[in-house]
Structures are given as C-alpha cells and as structure tokens.
Design goal:
heterodimer, A: mainly alpha, globular, B: alpha+beta, 27% helix
Chain lengths: 201, 154
C-alpha cells in the first residue's frame, strides 16, 4: 500500500467507527431534514461542511491557528445541539424564504470547529511531513462521510416508510415532520449531555 | 387500537432516547494512533514508534521508565520470520518530545518477513497503528487495527 493510501485508510477507519459518534451525530443532524428529492441541497450542505472542516484542519496543522483542545471538544457537541434545534424550530416555509446558502453556511462554519478537533493530534504525530498525511486523512474522512450519509439516508427513508404505515401520525402531523422531530430530539438530548460533560468550567 | 399503537411508539421512542443518552459515551473523539517508521538495511531493521504518552500510560501503568516502555513496545510489535516464529527485538532508546514518545526497537542478524502490531489495541477499541517501511529505495505502508494478524513487511 502506498503512503497516501495508508493515510486515506487511516482517515476512513477513524470516522467509520462508533467512537466517532460526535462526528456521526453531526452528520445525522445535518441530514435529518432531507428527503430523497432534496439530495442536491443535502450535497451542498455536506460539501460546505467538508470545506470548513478541511480549512481549519489545514490552518491548525500548519500551525497558522492554535486552538485549545478542551474548548474545541466542548464546541463540537454545541454545534450538534444548535443544528438539531434548527431542525426543530425552523419550518420548511421559513427555510424556503431564507437564502439558498443559509444552511450550507451553518454547515461550513460548524465544519471549521470539527476540523480543529483532529488537528492537534495530527500536528503532534506527523511532526516533519504533514502535507501528505493531512491530505490523505482528509480524503479518507470524506469517503467515510459519504458512507455514513448513505446509511443515514437509508435509515431516515426507513423511518419515513414505517411512519407512513401508521395512521396515528398522519392525522396529526405529516410523517416527515414526525421523523424530523423525533430524530432531532434524540440528537439534541445526546449532544446536550456531551456538552455539559465537556464544559471547560 | 390506533391510539394504543401511537402510545407504544411514543414509549419506544422515549426509551430509545433515554438509553442513548445514558449509553453513548461523552468522551471527545481522540485519535488513538501510533506511527511507526521502519528502516531496513542488509543487517538491521530499526523501527521508530511514535506513541502518545497518555495513551501509553494506560498500557504500562507504573512502568514508565525506558525499560518498561521498551519492553511493552517490543511485546506488542512482534517481527516474525518466514516460519512465523517471533524474532527477538531489542530496545534502542526512548525519546520524549511534548506529548509524544519516540520508542526505538531493532532486530539484527535476522530477516523478518512479517510484522504483528497490536500496540494499544488491548486498551482502545478504535486503535489504528500506521507502519511505514523503507527498504532498498522502496516505501510501503501498513495499517493495523484491533484483531489484525501479522502482515508481510516487504
């Protein structure tokens, strides 16, 4: 295996692991409002997240930005809580009225925070030649994200299918809204607990 | 009937939420990783392992001197000959640099064919050990995770 392939595998294995739950949960929070017909919007959001996360990773690893690990570890669950709350509190109508780049912008800004989460470790480990490991690691992370989002789309599609078979919901709420609310509530609850436990004070 | 099904679904969702809140770990998402560079010359194989000191602390406990660290690394990174027999490696020093330890082990007068790398795999389920090998002008990489067996060096 070439050095580059080694680092791609490193990034991929790192992200496709239950220990990477904070990253996976953020992706699920981003994906929670989308349906198959919204694939294009979802891809814009994920691309923005990837860009944000790559920018900080690059800046931090090349030592242009130094961020305290404890602060980053606290901010990461906060980004998940905020995304989940946005899912819950913003209606489809409100989203349609806002500018098209509004959600990609949130994802990009939060991506900046997530990228910093890896940076300190990579910085310490690859002291003298960081460019190739950084690029390979990022490619692996992105491939892992595509896999996670594919599973997320299947999971959310499955929830929609089951809800559409249950008449109890359709009378009160459309199945899609029940799915967004349930998934987002779980995400907000889990991430809130993480944020409280990682609070630096 | 419909109402009862709705209540059941709500209870199931609540139970799932509570179990997730209590079960999912709140730890941050560190990189449990080591990086090993192996240089192969005709008579010697020298491996330099970069390992985070706090991760290693879980494995060596109170044996944090150079001897304890070298012994642990040599026991978890095992070079094997063509018949899958372990080849004795000796410690060639430990250097500390910030959060990182650089641990050197070497094999002389033998030709290892494969490597088993279980460094910290007993401690961390998500441990990833990267190995880069330079031999005779060629380079290649290996990745080890928990449960991996020996892999060919060259």
């Amino acid at each position: 295996m070439s050095d580059f392939a080694t680092y791609v595998q490193f990034g991929f294995r790192h992200i496709v692991d239950v220990e990477a739950m904070d990253h996976i949960l953020f992706l699920l929070a981003l994906a929670a409002i989308y349906r198959w017909r919204d694939t294009k919007s979802a891809l814009w959001v994920v691309t923005a997240f990837t860009l944000g996360h790559s920018v900080t990773l690059g800046l931090a690893v090349t030592k242009l930005v130094q961020l305290p690990t404890s602060l980053i570890e606290f901010l990461i669950p906060l980004t998940i809580v905020v995304t989940g709350l946005e899912n819950l509190l913003t209606s489809d109508e409100q989203r349609r009225m806002r500018r098209v780049w509004y959600r990609p912008l949130i994802a990009g800004v939060f991506g900046l925070i997530h990228g910093a989460g890896f940076a300190n470790y990579l910085n310490a480990l690859f002291v003298e030649h960081v460019a190739l490991p950084l690029f390979g690691f990022n490619v692996g992370i992105e491939l892992g994200q595509v896999l996670i989002l594919t599973f997320a789309a299947a999971l959310l599609g499955g929830i929609d299918f089951m809800l559409s078979k249950t008449r109890a919901w359709s009378a009160l709420w459309p199945a899609y809204r029940v799915r967004v609310t349930t998934v987002s509530l779980v995400i907000v609850a889990v991430a809130s607990r993480w944020a409280m436990e990682r609070a630096p004070w | 009937m419909v109402m009862r099904r709705g209540v059941s679904a709500a209870i199931a969702a609540l139970a799932m939420t509570l179990s997730l809140i209590t079960a999912v770990r709140a730890d941050a998402h560190p990189l449990h990783t080591t990086l090993t560079e192996i240089a192969v010359t005709p008579n010697t194989l020298r491996a330099t392992v970069r390992i985070f000191a706090d991760d290693l602390g879980h494995a060596v406990g109170s044996r944090t001197n150079d001897l304890g660290i070298g012994t642990y690394v040599a026991s978890a990174m095992v070079f094997l000959d063509g018949q899958n027999r372990a080849i004795a490696a000796r410690s060639c020093g430990v250097k500390r640099s910030g959060d990182l330890l650089w641990v050197c082990i070497e094999v002389t007068d033998a030709r290892p064919m494969s490597l088993r790398n279980t460094l910290l795999c007993e401690q961390f389920r998500d441990q990833i050990n990267i190995v880069q090998i330079a031999a005779g002008g060629t380079k290649r990489g290996l990745v080890f995770t928990r449960g991996d067996g020996p892999k060919r060096l060259l």
